[in-house]
User: Fold this.
Amino acid sequence: MRKRITSLLLTLVMLLSLVPAMGVTALAASGDGTKGNPFVVTTYEDWKEKMELPGDKYIKLGADIDTSGENGGFGLGPTEFVSAIDRSYLDLNGKKLTLKKSIIDSGGEIQFIRLTAGELIISDSKGGGEIFGVNKVTMRYMRLIDVLDGAKLTLNSGKLHLEFNADAGAGNATIESSGTVEINGGTVATSCPGGWDERVPYVYNQDCALNSFGKAVINGGTFDGRVVLKAVAKAPGVADNVITGGDFKKSIYIRKDKTVTKDVPLNVSIRGGTYHYTPGYRMDGEVKATPHRKLCAENVTAW
Assistant:
């Protein structure tokens, strides 16, 4: 009887020792990165690895991913970020990807995702999916996605959201772009709990949902944060920045090239969209309903 009990106990110990190994295997990324069989990622490390692979690849979130608990609750390290290259198709798949930073040293990175080259195409096949950036760094600004010159970001659906502290440096941006941005749907948002909505009086240093120095094409989507488009002189009929739709909850600014000192055609064309007037207010204060205007194709304002 004693031998039988001992044998059963040894079997139980062996089975329990296999549980951690099986758990790790279950969390590993699956798929081969093709359209019909995308990489399914469930950890930050897997997602970062797949995003930085060369060539075209399809990536889908298989679970909520939260980096808030890393490094003792400080989130990602000071120099940590994702450098995306070539063409990446990212399906949020109804999941939430939380990216947090609390410390940035003098050599640290001010963005969570950098599009160095190629294109990042974001969609959300199930609805409710979100990339949520959290800037907890005092007196430093951050960007959720930084689009470099020559790269492109396309948002078809899903939410991009950057939250920052009231004591964070001004100039935060959910999307900062020197390249090309195309918004066809989804939501681009900023928030500053406990802070002022417009924290500085200067347009060049506003916290923005979208701050574009390059080309921006907005066909739809919701912008819950300022939108700033850089305008430069162009030949008549040429527009690099085109708005045909979208719901703009906050102000939209057109920054004229300061080297242009007279009335000249600018590379911005606004052909549609709904625009809400919202003066600055504290994010945690009372928000009153404000009037809005709808700009239709027959009511074109263009520069």
Remarks:
- The longest strand covers residues 96-101.
- Residues 33-302 form one domain.
- The CA atoms of residues 232 and 257 lie 5 Å apart.
- Residues 1-6, 8-26, 281-303 have pLDDT under 50 and may be disordered.
